[in-house]
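Subject: sequence -> structure tokens, single chain

Hey, anyone have a minute? Need the predicted structure for the following. Not urgent.
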Amino acid sequence: MELQTRLTEDMKAALKSGQKDRLAVIRMLLSDVKNIDLMPNKPTAEQVVAAYAKKLQKGVDEYEKLGKPDEAAKFKSEIAIVEEYLPKKASAGDTEKLVDEFLSTNAFTDKDFGRAMGAFMKAHGAQVDAGQANQLLKKKLAGK
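Reply:
Had a minute. Here:
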């Protein structure tokens, strides 16, 4: 099912069930997805949702720095709703297997970390968490 259709159906369900917080987040996502045509770089719907999740995460970080846990918790609950619409990322163990496979087929040294990271993310970027892949790749290259 296309993401915009799924968001529309979920919006209707949230409206009927009276879930106001969920409804607000879904409406925001739906608005962003519908406005893709107006964006200069023409991202995919998944990229738009990921960008919104990133904005929310920055809000969480800022509120935690300011010592406002109630606001940070509200943003975290919104992130949980947004993550339902993002593709699932590989677990830590699966990411490690992908890094091992990648390094076994490519000859990179620890000095080539930047190129190795770029090539790895080009091959597996959509299925792994970039921060996790970065740490694993650094550790594995340093251990060579």
